[in-house]
Amino acid sequence: xxxxxxxxxxxxxxxxxxxxxxxxxxxxxxxxxxxxxxxxxxxxxxxxxxxxxxxxxxxxxxxxxxxxxxxxxxxxxxxxxxxxxxxxxxxxxxxxxxxxxxxxxxxxxxxxxxxxxxxxxxxxxxxxxxxxxxxxxxxxxxxxxxxxxxxxxxxxxxxxxxxxxxxxxxxxxxxxxxxxxxxxxx
Length: 186
Description:
The protein is an alpha+beta fold. It has a domain at 98-186: GMP Synthetase, Chain A, domain 3. Helices cover 42% and strands 14% of the residues. It has helices at 20-23, 26-47, 49-52, 60-70, 80-88, 90-95, 100-111, 155-165; strands at residues 114-119, 140-146, 171-178, 181-185. It has a 4-stranded mixed sheet with strand order 1-2-3-4, with helices on one face.
């Protein structure tokens, strides 16, 4: 956590900023020296603030705040490296939001598995009017996730993730697979 650091010297001592008449006042200098000890960590943090905004450099306890700032939910049970990677990819994920590729990447980040997405929509063109329309009439989406340990994945949480990331009007189904075994959540 951020806080005072015993013995840390302020890069900008407040006593030096006093008018000349107070430069020799021991009481004023002692009061400002106490404030310097409190302000030193703030100045040092502000000098390195760009490092705090880089998910690969930020302190671990600041990473949770940074994830909230970029709007991505990270799981406390993940390793610190996996959480840093998830926060680093947040901007790219927002660029792909609403696409099958974006949904697949988001599910990959949260599960650590490989993801296959099948959707029924489609587009086509024809020079002859009255041809068959591509896809199905009712939109739907199937998300298949293959992981080493399906029991490590919370199906309800994964289902909620997919529901939040897909278009609201599209029905979906989530399947968690391992070596032919299938767990399905609708």
